Amino acid sequence: MKKKIIIGVVIVALIGTIGGIQITSKNKKQSIVVKTSKVVMGDVKMYLSTTGTIKSKTEKDYTVSSTAKILNVNVSVGDRTKKGATLLTYDTSDFKNQVASAQIGYNNALSQKQDAVNKDNDATNTIANTADTQANAATINTAEASVLSDEKIKQLDYAVATAKITLDSAKTKLSQNSYITSNIDGVVTAVNVVNGQTGSQETAIIVQDISSLKAVVKVGKYDAAKVAIGQESTILSNSKVYKAKVSKIYPTATVNTSAAGGDTTLTVELDVLEVAPMLKVNFDSDVDILLNQALNVLKVPAEAILTNKDGSTYLFVSENGKAVQKTVKLGIQSDADVQVISGVKASDIVILNPGATITNGLMVKEAEAVGGK
Asked: Which residues, in sequence order, are CB contacts of 75 under 8 Å at separation 6+?
């Protein structure tokens, strides 16, 4: 009997304890644990992050004659060359023969004209100095036959002019088919011809100034409206960051098509502002273009911001253990932070990623704060 009584007392005690716990729980207001961050003063920078292809700012492509045979290619890929240096030479024997032949033709035309002019002068003098008598009739007739008519003078002049054109053309061909020289200081990055070759369907030699680089990026319609000449930028390659700036925006967009579909992009060029040995021509690199910035302003993490259906924005501030909804006016936004123009003040504690569970007046408990709380 004693055992039963003891067991009964224990059961009653347990029931009482459980009942007490339930009553206490009902009387307590539960709190939701939230992550928070302080409203602080700082900089907000909005970037366009994309990929760019590294190119030389100065590139010269050289094509070879379709008729002249290459005598000697003087450079190979990787060679450094100076402005005016000879890249290749042609076999000029045929062109020199053409110049020599044209020179002979031109000299003959000049000689023929000069002979005719001399005869004309002699005939004119003979006529002027010979009495017009029956005895001198034959002499005068012969002299008159040597006098140049206007038409004959035109023919002689035309022959000389034509021969001169032929000679000049031959000299031009010889000049154009003697050699190719570099127009810039740079590095030879492509050689697509060999000794003895005649003609080429592709660029024969490419020289680039690889010490002066740019990045070429393609931006979409919405981002293109935000990009402007002079915007500060950075280029990342092998963990090294190089300064750059937007230097050129193409006037028209380009339609790009592929098997998967097509898109329309605008080409933007960025000058690299410092020596960048890790940047290699034709390699892709990560590019960040600074589209806008606000310096020394109130800012909060972007994850704290919520948006109403009407487009207005708000957030929740943790005040005295409660979530308090605040309507805020925003400025510049980056991937991480947002400028707050009005609605909160420095050192306010904002709730991060509030979601639908957080409502105005809800009891909250701050977890380990983010951002220096």
From this structure: 81, 87, 88, 188, 191, 205
